## 1
Amino acid sequence: MECGLSPIIGFRFSLYPMADNFVEVIKGALSETDTSNVWMHTDDVSTVIRGKQIHVFNVAKAIALSAAKTGKHLALSGTFSAGCPGDTTGDVYLDKSDEIANRDATKQYVSSQFALYPMNNPMYMDIIYKEVDRAKQQGVFNDSMHYASGIHGDIHEVFAFYEEAFSNARSDDHKHLVMTVSMSINSPSHGGR
Amino acid sequence: MECGLSPIIGFRFSLYPMADNFVEVIKGALSETDTSNVWMHTDDVSTVIRGKQIHVFNVAKAIALSAAKTGKHLALSGTFSAGCPGDTTGDVYLDKSDEIANRDATKQYVSSQFALYPMNNPMYMDIIYKEVDRAKQQGVFNDSMHYASGIHGDIHEVFAFYEEAFSNARSDDHKHLVMTVSMSINSPSHGGR
């Protein structure tokens, strides 16, 4: 095991369209997204993408945004991981440039919840509180709650916050970081936003 | 903050029916489940239940099993938490007896993935590997994968494995434990099981 030696970022997620034509929505979003900068594998429960951080977040956002355009209520739920000691060095696309492949800037309201889990780090609660404070400063904080924090706003601002949080919350001394994100789009519970 | 002093277990989850009548499926599952042994709150993204471990797992399983009976493809995705230093002591139902409220034993195939995150514990990878080995011994292990492990079988065996894993992976010295579970039911990808 090569503990955290590589800059591999992974996101294991599922896209859940609350619609009878869920297969069509999922396949449409995947086909409309340029995933060439990440390694990707889908099984019967979830999909995992791996590569440079910039591409993993770009592809995740593009899939959600593409699916959102169907107008269907959907959720994107998953876990971002970096530096896992049990991680393998294969299945990565680290030779890609830093130029992102998906540039759709369409606005889309999302309501989401996240939790940070900095592993094997005695100061982990401080790291979590710091990122929650930053969300409040950036205007994307929605609500406090048990086990998570609510983050909402335009999908581009929300993903920018998450990518920065994921960078801030890990360090050379504490490479193993996990962040869960659950995102709701086009929900009848969002009060018409 | 009273760090891990109480036996509060929480599960923040979402039920995702991949169906146009998702509201009906969710409300039906919640109304058919006896949730009187847990504190419960729903917001625009997820639902959280809190209480004694036995009741939290019992209610989570009952909601999934009830929704499964609609025959619709659905997912249950969420995070079990215990001993979080930032947790509050309110919103719990710890005065309940240990008698479970939901006893439906109907068989239901589920395919799921889980990850354990024992917080602030230098030996956390050993704990994770031990529970994955136990899944293999108990016949519920499905597959290895990046960032998670596949667990499948009858819903009752799968939930029994998860509840035991959640007990095994925390201790008096390391009270803060997080476990993510993503579960797929009635999926066209399950090959007719």
## 2
Amino acid sequence: MEIFWTHLRKFVEIDEAEYAAVTTYFEVLECKKKENLLAEGELSKFNYFVLNGCLRKFFVKQNGAEQTTQFALETWWIADLFSFEKQQVADCYIQAVEKSTVLRISYQNYVKLLAAHPVMESYFRKIYQINTAASERRIRYLYEFSREESYLHFRNLFPDFIQRIPQYLLASYLGFTPEYLSEIRAKLRS
Amino acid sequence: MEIFWTHLRKFVEIDEAEYAAVTTYFEVLECKKKENLLAEGELSKFNYFVLNGCLRKFFVKQNGAEQTTQFALETWWIADLFSFEKQQVADCYIQAVEKSTVLRISYQNYVKLLAAHPVMESYFRKIYQINTAASERRIRYLYEFSREESYLHFRNLFPDFIQRIPQYLLASYLGFTPEYLSEIRAKLRS
């Protein structure tokens, strides 16, 4: 939990007493590698914050292949936010890429937390403002970059990530086949 | 301004006195068709809310072509949010598609507004949470849909929009050539 305390104070001023109250709205969850935290067709009850490990979000394409659309490492939030907001069933999966420890908050607790602790309105405003800005840039890159440029750009932004994520998942996220990713990597090494 | 008052109350509880105070942080701006509100290389000073008309965001590709990445109709916000947050120079343009009336808020005023009016933290938290959820869906669609499916999907979601936006801009947004868009439309009519 130390990581959440440190993380929160990067965004807002909060004292130990209020932090203790805030944490009562969350639960800690341990998940095994490849465990699904959310599956297509299930009610999207929770928003997840990664304390340790890595989660990913994917959907199943018409041809049956999994398409990864998001990763979440330590201190990142991940949810099917659209269905979480509306408390609807999800149309995607959230899965642990590795053994992970996460905080989760239910939609009901999220609403109560924001009503009881205005500092958390400010915190989530900053988080979602940053996410909106990051999504705007990601959408631009999807228009702008060739597949090889996407890989180079991602490698520059997240060098540790490239080492840590299984290559077939990274390929899926970048919209490649694993074979094409191997080709790019071989070309860059030569 | 009536449109901003109505819009705000969809998201938060605010009385007339506080609304009057909130509006002092904003300026109203009239813009001509094709007027640039922000150009690449300029400091990204403002966040814009459309009262009337339509704005778009685009960047200039290496081949010199304009790539539209976002439209904003009445009650939508638009900015180069990444450079607005960091008060850096923009790497894109914001332009009026038609004669428009907008509210704008400077970064300095945005910071002051949030500090003075916690209700606006709640408002912007909701706006950016919705934007994050919408971006997640848009990114999924960029992976999932063929070009023809993108057009059909967009037409179902925003029927009025399709009538209103010049076809060459819509084609750019969807990642088509104008010729390809004409072909799809002809095919759907036949």
